[in-house]
TrEMBL record, chain B:
Species of origin: Chitinophaga hostae
SUPFAM superfamilies, A to Z: Kelch motif (SSF117281)
Keyword field: Kelch repeat, Repeat, Signal
Keyword Transcription regulation: no
Domain of life of the organism encoding this protein: Bacteria
SMART domains, per database record: Kelch (SM00612)
Protein's UniProt name: Galactose oxidase, central domain
InterPro entries registered for this protein in UniProt: Kelch-typ_b-propeller, Kelch_1
Pfam family, one: Kelch_1
Amino acid sequence: MQSTTKMTKRNIIIAAGIMVMALAFFAWKTNHHEKNGSDMLAVVVEPFEIRDGWGYRVNVDGHTYIYQDIIPGVPGNRVFRTKENALRVGNVVMEKLTHHKIPSMTQQELISMKITEAE
Amino acid sequence: MRYLKGYSLLLLMASLAACSKSSNTTTLVGNWIKRSEFEGVARTSAASFVIDNKAYVGTGYDGTNRLQDFWMYDADQNQWTQMTPFSGPARSNAVGMAMAGKGYVGTGYDGLNKLNDFYEYTPPPVNSWARKADFKGTARYGAVAFSLKDLGYIATGYDGNWLKDNWQYNPVTNTWEQVQSLNSGKRTDASVFVIDNKAYVCMGTANSTAVTDFYSFDGDTKTWTTLNPIANVNDDSFDDAYNFAGSGSASFAMKGKGYIVSGIKGSYSGAVWEYTPGTDRWTQKTDFEGAARTGATGFAVKDRGFVVLGASSSLNLDDMWEFDPNAEYNKND
């Protein structure tokens, strides 16, 4: 008799524990969804090595939106000389994207940023 | 201030380097934007052409400025790469076409003037533009362009009047010559798609009225054939449902059929119509899933149809859609 009561108590504790965990999971999921699902998009710049130089990706919401394996806005098939240069230009592109500007770079902008490989 | 900026940049680099040193993944810089405010490369009335299964899309209008930038869209990866900018003045409502592995863009509107200049794009690794012989017809915007057997054509448009003339460009000799005009049906903002060495020109407006005349141009005989109008004009019932005459639609051809997507048909329409050349008949397909729009860019890559960009009311759209012709059309959808 006593053991049965004990079992029931334990069951209640286990059930309550499961419920708390389920609630916590649900709350986390809702929160997670709001942050990453419908409302805000993460915009991330990621440099990568290509043809003995560097390019960059701009990922929006986890998907590559801009894939820049050449220097943008200049003729030819050039790559950035350094990771830092790719990152700096990618960063400006990201700023444009997040400030409602068309994310295009011009040669003048690159030159004024001292990206000498774009000259 | 300059030093401060430089210093903070250094600090940022250092912190980023610190973040990435634990793994071999690359450095990241991040930010957030509201989904509803993401515009990307959004624009309307861009020019486009397809070379080697890549779509090149550029120029156009962002609601404030005429644009000069040019992008390559990789349909397999669903991503954009910024190429060298168009070398002529920024413009909208220009035309684009591809011939023999090169792209061509010309005519259009710079905000003040109608244009007649014409340019050739050589894809990577060259990635550059060169000015070619000016279009020999009158300066205009809202024309259509197509290529048949590596000869280019620019037809219709608006030069102050609605037009039905047709001009052929030979890229080998870099020369223009006038060829047969459309039989009738002067228009601007028309649509064109090419199937089996024939260009099908439909849609468009003249004098604020939707044009229903429909023609095909044969690349061998260099003549136009009149097809059934896209309106309910026939005593037979096949055209009873034809209600899609309008302008600013995206168009493309895939798997031997032509498609007209969205555009302005009285008001913004998301309707999709499929043309079968053998029977000269149109069938309505599943409505466009994206926002109904005008000035979007349509193209086909590897027999897959895409509609990208465009504008709806005052909103420029950045999204891209692949069209599945086998999706069932549901009238009650």
